[in-house]
Design goal:
By secondary structure, the protein is an alpha+beta fold. Strand 9 and strand 10 form a beta hairpin. The model has no long low-confidence stretch (mean pLDDT 84).
C-alpha cells in the first residue's frame, strides 16, 4: 500500500515537473522573453555610379541602394523616416612643417573636444557636409517580419566637383503596431529647419483627398516620452556613412 502511494506521489511529481517545464518553455522562454527584447533593424547602404554613365557637365548619375534586415525575433513597425545626402569637399593640405606642428596639435585637440563627429587630417582639408544634395523618405510605414529584408533603390545626381558624399538616415521603429492611442491618431512627419537638420512634426490627415495634411512641429523630448509611453521597446536607427566618388 505504501509503495503504491509512493509510486503515485512520484508519478504526480513527474507530471508537475513536466507541466512546469512546459510553462517555462512556452510562456516564459518562447513568449515573455522575446516580448521584452527591443526591435532591431540592421541598415546597410551603398552608393554606386550608374553603369555606363560618365561624369558630365551636370554631374554623375548614381544609385543609392538601401537594405534593412530585421535581425530580431519580433516584428518591427516602421514610423515615418528620412534620408539626407550631402556633399563633401576634400582638397590636399600643405605638408605640415615643424613650425606648424603646434598649430596642427591645437586643431587636433579642438576636434577631440567638440560635440560633432568631424575629424582632422594632416594632409587633407575637408569641409564636412559642405552642400545639401537630396532628401526624402527612405521606407514606407511598414511591418518587417523577423528575418525579413526590405530594400530600396534611389537614383540621384551628384554635382560636378563633389569629392565625396555623406548619407544620413533616421528610422524610428516600434515593437507594436501603431494605433489611435499613439499621437492621438496623428502621424509622424519631418521638416527641414536647415539643409542638414530636421525637426519632428505631427500631422492630421486632410479631410478631402488630394489635400496636404495639417502638420505642427513638436518638441523632440515630448515626442520621445509619448513613444516611450506607447511602447517602452521603441528604438531609433541613426545611420551615417561617407562614400568616396570616382574621378
Amino acid at each position: 500500500m505504501r509503495s503504491e502511494l509512493l509510486h503515485d506521489w512520484i508519478q504526480s511529481l513527474g507530471i508537475l515537473i513536466a507541466a512546469t517545464w512546459g510553462v517555462y518553455t512556452f510562456i516564459y522562454k518562447d513568449m515573455w522573453v522575446p516580448s521584452q527584447q527591443p526591435p532591431n533593424l540592421t541598415l546597410e547602404a551603398t552608393i554606386t555610379p550608374v553603369s555606363g554613365r560618365r561624369l558630365g557637365p551636370d554631374g554623375l548619375e548614381t544609385t543609392i541602394e538601401a537594405k534593412a534586415t530585421n535581425s530580431s525575433t519580433r516584428a518591427v513597425h516602421l514610423l515615418a523616416n528620412y534620408w539626407i545626402l550631402s556633399g563633401l569637399q576634400r582638397s590636399p593640405a600643405p605638408a605640415p612643417s615643424s613650425a606648424s606642428e603646434s598649430h596642427l596639435l591645437s586643431k587636433a585637440n579642438q576636434v577631440l573636444r567638440q560635440q560633432d563627429l568631424s575629424h582632422l587630417e594632416s594632409t587633407v582639408t575637408s569641409q564636412p557636409e559642405a552642400a545639401f544634395l537630396a532628401v526624402g523618405r527612405l521606407f514606407d510605414d511598414n511591418i518587417v517580419q523577423p528575418g525579413e529584408t526590405i530594400s530600396r533603390s534611389i537614383l540621384v545626381r551628384i554635382p560636378r566637383g563633389t569629392d565625396a558624399v555623406q548619407l544620413r538616415a533616421f528610422l524610428p521603429i516600434l515593437s507594436r503596431r501603431p494605433s489611435q492611442a499613439l499621437f492621438n491618431g496623428r502621424s509622424l512627419g519631418w521638416e527641414l529647419i536647415d539643409p542638414l537638420n530636421t525637426r519632428p512634426m505631427l500631422c492630421t490627415p486632410a479631410k478631402k483627398a488630394g489635400l496636404d495634411p495639417t502638420c505642427k512641429s513638436v518638441d523632440a523630448e515630448k515626442l520621445d516620452k509619448e513613444l516611450q509611453s506607447f511602447d517602452h521597446n521603441n528604438a531609433v536607427i541613426n545611420f551615417r556613412k561617407q562614400f568616396g566618388l570616382p574621378e
